[in-house]
């Protein structure tokens, strides 16, 4: 490859003979171009006035000229090897310069793509970290939700139990008030001769109220459901026991008449 001067021209110069031959070829080509230009100028007045027909004629002429050029074999501009070598060197230098430009463009594009790839990989890593963090947060929220749900159920159950206890206490108080009012103990009949009457009736001073009898029966059922029977002692007033048995509130033991239990109401 020939050495290139700062002006872009090859360092080697053509000989005088080659320069003379090249100038003659240039003059011949220039003369031929002048001849073709004159022929074109002379043909222009004969053109038809119809623009459409004129376009069709030009298209046909161009097509015919193309076909003619396709049949013509290319010829060398000059037969001098020195001229051809110099022209080849110039074309090679031009081609190398264009290839260097293409290479530079592709290298710049490659660097740009590499930078874009690094940015995309960095963005992908960041998104993976965000996804991991979001997944962990979602799992933690799900666990907290489950715990909160269990805690809510537990608190709701406790609230219901407290409510039932309050309702039971109110119900027992109401039952005690009703029983105290309508079914009082015999000794509650106040008189100056209460002890004398108790002795005459055979009453025990330790008798418990009907409310207490019911409470003992209910506690026995709740605490020992497998053995709900209560032994009747002297603190149970017989009329109360008879009333509970008669109205189906309590039942006797099948083998022991001194045992009773609360009737099953469900």
| Principal-axes shape call | rod-shaped
Supply the number of helical segments: 6
Number of strands: 3
Please summarize the sheet with the most strands.
3 strands, antiparallel
> CA-to-CA gap between the ends?
115 Å
Task: Explain the overall architecture.
- The chain has helices at 16-43, 51-71, 81-182, 194-201, 210-223, 238-246, and strands at 230-231, 250-252, 259-262.
- It is mainly α.
- Among the domains are: 80-151; 152-183; 206-265, no CATH class.
- Strand 2 and strand 3 (259-262) form a beta hairpin.
- The protein is rod-shaped.
- The two termini are 115 Å apart.
- Mean pLDDT is 80; it is low at 1-11 and 196-201.
- Its main location: nucleus.
- Keywords: Centromere, Chromosome, Coiled coil, Nucleus.
- This is Centromere protein K.
- Pfam families: CENP-K (PF11802).
Task: Note the topology.
Elements: H1 16-43, H2 51-71, H3 81-182, H4 194-201, H5 210-223, E1 230-231, H6 238-246, E2 250-252, E3 259-262
Antiparallel strand pairs: 1-3, 2-3
Quick summary:
The protein is mainly α.
What are the defining features of this structure?
266 residues; mainly alpha; 3-stranded antiparallel sheet; 3% strand; rod-shaped; disordered N terminus
């Amino acid at each position: 490859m020939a050495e290139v001067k700062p002006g872009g021209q090859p360092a080697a110069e053509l000989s005088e003979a080659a320069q003379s031959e090249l100038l003659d070829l240039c003059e011949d080509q220039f003369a031929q171009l002048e001849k073709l230009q004159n022929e074109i100028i002379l043909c222009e007045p004969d053109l038809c006035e119809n623009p459409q027909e004129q376009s069709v004629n030009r298209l046909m002429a161009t097509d015919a000229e193309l076909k003619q050029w396709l049949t013509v074999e290319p010829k060398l501009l000059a037969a001098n090897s020195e001229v051809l070598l110099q022209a080849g060197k110039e074309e090679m230098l031009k081609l190398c310069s264009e290839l260097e430009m293409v290479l530079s463009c592709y290298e710049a594009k490659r660097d740009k793509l590499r930078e874009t790839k690094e940015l995309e990989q960095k963005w992908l890593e960041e998104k993976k970290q965000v996804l991991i963090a979001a997944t962990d947060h979602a799992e933690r929220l799900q666990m907290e939700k489950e715990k909160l749900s269990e805690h809510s159920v537990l608190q709701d159950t406790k609230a219901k139990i407290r409510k039932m206890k309050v309702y039971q206490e109110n119900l027992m108080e109401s039952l005690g008030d009703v029983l105290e009012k309508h079914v009082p103990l015999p000794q509650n009949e106040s008189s100056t001769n209460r002890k004398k009457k108790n002795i005459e009736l055979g009453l025990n001073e330790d008798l418990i109220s009907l409310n207490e009898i019911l409470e003992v029966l209910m506690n026995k059922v709740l605490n020992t459901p497998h053995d709900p029977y209560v032994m009747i002692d002297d603190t149970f007033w017989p009329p109360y026991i008879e009333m509970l048995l008669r109205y189906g509130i309590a039942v006797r033991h099948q083998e022991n008449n001194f045992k009773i239990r609360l009737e099953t109401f469900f």
